[in-house]
Design goal:
There is one protein chain. The protein has 277 residues and is of the alpha+beta class. The protein has ten helices and seven strands. The protein folds into two domains: 214 residues, Protein of unknown function DUF1054 (BirA Bifunctional Protein, domain 2, 2-Layer Sandwich), CATH 3.30.930.20; 46 residues, no CATH class. Helices cover 43% and strands 13% of the residues. Strands 1-2-3-4-5 form a five-stranded antiparallel beta sheet.
């Protein structure tokens, strides 16, 4: 089923839910929630088919793995006041373990972007921050041009009635403040009261364009380059060796490194270059 836009009741459902935040109310209105979830599944499928599977074949795209449940696993209250999902690298084992291309539906708005959340292991968090610091001038330059996107410095989205206050990165001080937050996030918000695209099939292409604009930011955060380096230094050798030529000669190469260092991305680029030959 293709995405035809959210129904207006999808957002009204969450507004009603926050005013009647009980299990009894949810059970009586579960049909409304089921409609919303199916709409989100359709949106994820169309984005995956038209973009993610082509540009990021290493990403998980199955809805059952990408879209989170609204009910909490223990705790009070038993539900979340938002519904979210994310595309992430399969090798990371779960969407909460990786830097995500995410989507969230809140009572007042819809947002999408990049998110490095609270459950990421410290090693990966530190790796991402170091990657950004290494190319901070380029990161700041790209950030200043992204006028429709926010780099919030106090990421507590579910607790804010309208989400985090907007924030931009224009200099090193701004960047340092953003990097010192627990959760790194870059996103764009669509408000259901005036962003009519939410209720049309055109939202698919709009989110895809948002993701594409964030690709350079993502590449820096996971230490990816837009092109394969023509040459790489191999451990134990002082000379630079052409990667493609080496692969053709030896028939295999081994890439190693911690999660988030671009091994999968690098391999994909090598494969594309070999197919072109």
């Amino acid at each position: 089923m293709s995405f035809n836009g959210f129904s207006k009741d999808s957002f009204i459902f969450f507004q009603d839910f926050t005013k009647n935040f009980t299990s009894d109310w949810f059970r009586k209105n579960k049909g409304r929630y089921d409609v919303l979830r199916l709409e989100l599944i359709s949106l994820f499928k169309d984005i995956a088919d038209n973009y993610i599977k082509k540009d990021h074949p290493e990403f998980e795209t199955e809805a059952k793995y990408c879209i989170a449940r609204i009910n909490k696993q223990g705790g009070t209250p038993p539900y979340w006041k938002y519904l979210w999902g994310a595309f992430y690298r399969k090798e990371m084992g779960g969407k909460s373990n990786d830097l995500q291309f995410y989507i969230t539906i809140h009572p007042e708005y819809f947002d999408c972007g990049l998110f490095l959340g609270p459950y990421i292991n410290d090693k990966l968090k530190e790796s991402v921050r170091n990657c950004i610091k290494t190319k901070k001038a380029k990161f700041i330059s790209m950030s200043t041009s992204m006028t429709n996107y926010s780099f919030p410095v106090d990421v507590k989205a579910p607790e804010y009635p309208l989400g985090e206050p907007n924030n931009s990165i224009n200099n090193e001080k701004d960047l340092e403040e953003w990097l010192n937050t627990d959760n790194l996030k870059v996103h764009r918000k669509y408000y259901f009261k005036h962003d009519k695209v939410l209720f049309t099939p055109a939202l698919v292409n709009s989110v895809i364009e948002d993701y594409k604009k964030l690709e350079p930011i993502y590449s820096i955060m996971v230490n990816e380059s837009s092109e394969i380096p023509e040459k790489v230094n191999l451990k134990g050798e002082s000379n630079k060796v052409d990667t493609i030529s080496l692969l053709k000669k030896k028939k295999q190469i081994i890439l190693y490194g911690p999660p988030g260092t671009g091994k999968t991305y690098f391999t994909k680029k090598i494969a594309i270059n070999l197919l072109k030959d």
